[in-house]
């Protein structure tokens, strides 16, 4: 809500842009536990853990018809 108000006011938008520029210059590091810092959106975004493997498709459980 405060961010929304800040984005809507002319002076707030300038202040927000200055903070975003400072964040980009600061080379922000985030613990992988919390995600990663996205420089395009200037936000912390979720990442998929590299230890989780996508399940592979399994054979169907339906019996095949044999004559």
From TrEMBL:
Residues 54-67 have a biased composition (Low complexity). Residues 48-67 are annotated as: Disordered. This is Uncharacterized protein. The lineage of its organism: Bacteria, Bacillati, Actinomycetota, Actinomycetes, Kineosporiales.
